[in-house]
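Thread amino acids onto this structure.
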């Protein structure tokens, strides 16, 4: 029996191809939702859009400090595992839900399968980097999206025969949903956006938005971006960022359209039709690469170096000058790179490896 543990927006989106396939294969599985994300537009909307089954277990942990949140998920998943006795626990990515779910499982001698293993930013100040490293080292199966991520794990001493290169399930997810999304392009009309003639922005990384100076700089940069290119800027705001904007009393430049987080289908439409995307999100760096839309990453490092290598993405500091320079470079290039994240069969490879492993 397989337990699928998830808890945040990107985990739901990236686990969805695996859950769909488990259902298709009539496998013995169940879902545990930690409740790390709980607002409708960060959680339920994705279950509805992606037609995922309601999780059998919901831990309802909500927000809190790292220690508090991780501890609640640890004890919550432990009692579910003790009761249900799964053979394998699957976690995806690098959130507190992933770390806690994996730790609960490994202490009960249950095999952990880490989907999207081996990513490294080499920046240990990021909570996600700690979560990734620890989860990889607790895992029996490491599903690495690329050869590069596989090598990261092996270089840390993880036995090579535990690491499988599967591609990233985000490719499966984009392929399975892009057409449905493109058939529902109403969001472009709603915000008066023309194909290829607007910028899309997302930002939620703790290092960026929990720092008043950096967040203020980002907003200033967006104002400068509009002045330079005279194109609309649309910014679906993550709840963490919304909270910080209010707390720091930062004014949003009048030419930036702030909207609530969108569902996955509408977000795919926004991404696929943007002239360029500015982001600090991991998933968005991958999706823009897959969709052939240039990306500027508002960070000094990335655990997705493949996007930089193929030329779909560039890193930048947070000052207006740095951001404008990065945008200019990316607008000059042609979007003719190849997608390094696999062929859209990552879910299939992942489940086949568990069966044969
Ligand atoms: C978490 C992950 C991050 C991931 C992101 C995806 C960790 C350490 N961080 O960051 O790696 O990229 O999810 O989006 O696991 N909030 C709501 N509604 C919600 C969820 C959060 O209002 O449904 C607000 C709360 O004020 C909360 C804040 O957002 O305190 C941050 O939420 P949290 O889950 O702690 O971290 P994220 O920034 O979402
Ligand atoms: N996303 C979404 N609506 C939004 C912003 C993002 O559906 O308003 C999706 C996006 O397509 C991607 C995922 O959320 O698949 C990325 O999540 P996030 O940026 O929160 O986390 P990260 O990938 O950085 O962990």
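Threaded sequence (357 positions):
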């Amino acid at each position: 029996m397989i337990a699928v543990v998830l808890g945040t927006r990107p985990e739901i989106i990236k686990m969805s191809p695996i859950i769909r396939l488990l259902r298709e294969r009539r496998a013995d599985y169940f879902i545990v939702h930690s409740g790390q994300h709980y607002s409708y537009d960060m959680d339920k909307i994705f279950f509805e859009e992606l037609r995922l089954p309601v999780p059998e277990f919901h831990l309802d942990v909500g927000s809190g400090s790292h220690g508090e949140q991780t501890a609640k998920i640890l004890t919550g998943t432990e009692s579910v595992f003790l009761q249900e006795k799964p053979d394998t626990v699957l976690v995806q990515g690098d959130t507190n839900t992933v770390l806690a779910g994996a730790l609960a499982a490994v202490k009960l001698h249950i095999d952990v399968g880490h989907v999207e293993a081996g990513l490294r930013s080499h920046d240990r100040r990021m909570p996600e980097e700690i979560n990734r490293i620890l989860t990889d080292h607790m895992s029996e199966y490491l599903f690495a999206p690329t050869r590069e991520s596989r090598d990261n794990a092996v270089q840390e001493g993880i036995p090579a025969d535990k690491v499988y290169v599967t591609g990233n399930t985000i490719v499966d997810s984009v392929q399975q949903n892009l057409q449905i999304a493109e058939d529902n392009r109403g969001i472009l009309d709603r915000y008066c956006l023309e194909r290829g003639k607007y910028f899309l922005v997302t930002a939620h990384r703790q290092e960026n938005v929990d720092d008043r100076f950096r967040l203020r700089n980002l907003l200033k940069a967006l104002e400068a971006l509009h002045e330079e290119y005279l194109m609309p800027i649309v910014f679906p705001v993550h709840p963490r960022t919304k909270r910080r904007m209010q707390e720091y009393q930062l004014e949003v430049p009048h030419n930036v359209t702030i909207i609530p987080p969108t569902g996955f289908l509408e977000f795919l439409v926004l991404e696929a039709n943007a002239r360029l995307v500015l982001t600090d999100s991991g998933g968005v760096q991958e999706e823009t690469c897959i969709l052939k839309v240039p990306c500027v990453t508002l960070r000094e490092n990335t655990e997705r170096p493949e996007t930089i290598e193929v030329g779909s993405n560039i890193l930048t500091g947070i000052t207006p000058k740095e951001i404008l320079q990065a945008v200019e470079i990316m607008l000059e290039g042609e979007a003719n790179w190849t997608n390094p994240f696999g062929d859209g069969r990552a879910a299939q490879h992942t489940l086949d490896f568990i069966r044969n492993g």
